[in-house]
Write a structure and sequence with these properties.
Elements lengths: L7 E6 L1 H5 L8 H16 L3 E6 L15 H25 L4 E5 L8 E2 L2 H9 L3 E5 L9 H11 L4 E6 L4 E2 L11 E2 L1 E3 H7 L6 H10 L3 E5 L5 H6 L6 E4 L2
Helix pairs in contact: 2-3, 5-7, 6-7
Bound molecules: guanosine-5'-triphosphate.
The site of guanosine-5'-triphosphate has 9 residues, from strand 4.
């Protein structure tokens, strides 16, 4: 059997990741590739929970004069669309999944019930959490942190466009330096854009490590879950 570092992981995918290069909506080739990478974890016996953002469909800041809460609720609905897309891609390749949403939409998905989510995971089902935390003002990163704490995940695998955390924006500065490891306090004090501060604090308070890595490189999800040295690890020390 292949070595594996983590038993239960929380995979956070940005909504943009599902859009691929088209930048908007869902690219099903990309969704399928991600699903196949998730299957590798399931095949290794790793329990996988996932949170997907919604930015490929709706970003709160598009709302201009819109009330923040309404804009955020639209974002939560966008995450549900993405959750169902990822569910379909996984079930296409024979992976059992459950979608659980923080806002009840029983005709479409199960409501979030922590103990039930845990049972699904124990049975090898991939559980995808939709509708954020169900509250406005909370990001999907915070959702990933909250659900990771609730389901007792060993790590948050934070899949991003960039391949780790840099001291400055690597897309703008060619001399940006990537960190191999950081503490939560480093992230908060330096104002590094890893996760928002609410999500980072939640991870810090509950001692949940965050591995930030690039999703564009095929095979990285497996490497991240296997504890290979990729990306940037944010932890207590
Ligand atoms: P086990 O009891 O562990 O086998 O879990 P299970 O999820 O298979 O049991 P259940 O009989 O509760 O669910 C059967 C199917 O119905 C699964 O595909 C669930 O995702 C789905 N399901 C369960 N509850 C809901 C719900 O509230 N809404 C929707 N839309 N589907 C649900």
């Amino acid at each position: 059997m292949e070595p594996k570092k983590y038993k239960r992981v929380m995979l956070k995918l940005s909504g943009e990741a599902l859009a691929g290069t088209q930048g908007y909506g869902i690219n099903f080739d990309v969704a399928q590739r991600i699903a196949e990478e998730i299957k590798e974890l399931v095949d290794m016996g790793i329990e996988v929970a996932a949170v997907v953002g919604g930015g490929n469909i709706w970003r709160g800041r598009q709302g201009n004069d819109m009330d923040r809460t309404s804009a955020d609720y639209m974002g939560m609905l966008a995450t549900c669309i993405n959750a169902i897309a990822l569910q379909e891609s996984l079930e296409n390749i024979g992976i059992n999944t459950r979608v659980q949403t923080a806002i009840e939409m029983k005709e479409i998905a199960e409501p979030f019930i922590r103990r039930r989510a845990m049972r699904h995971l124990e049975k090898g089902r991939v559980v995808i959490f939709g509708a954020g935390t169900g509250n406005p003002y909370f990001s999907t990163d915070t959702t990933a942190a909250l659900r990771a704490a609730e389901i007792e995940a060993d790590v948050i695998l934070l899949a991003k466009k960039v391949d780790g955390v840099y001291d400055k924006d690597p897309n703008k500065y060619s001399d940006a330096v990537k960190f191999d490891a950081l503490t939560y306090m480093n992230v908060l004090e330096k104002g590094l854009q890893v996760m928002d501060s609410t999500a980072t604090s939640l991870c810090m308070d509950n001692d949940i490590p965050i591995l930030v890595f690039g999703l564009d490189e095929p095979g990285n999800i497996k490497k991240a879950a296997s504890g290979d040295k990729i990306g940037t690890l944010v932890s207590r020390n």
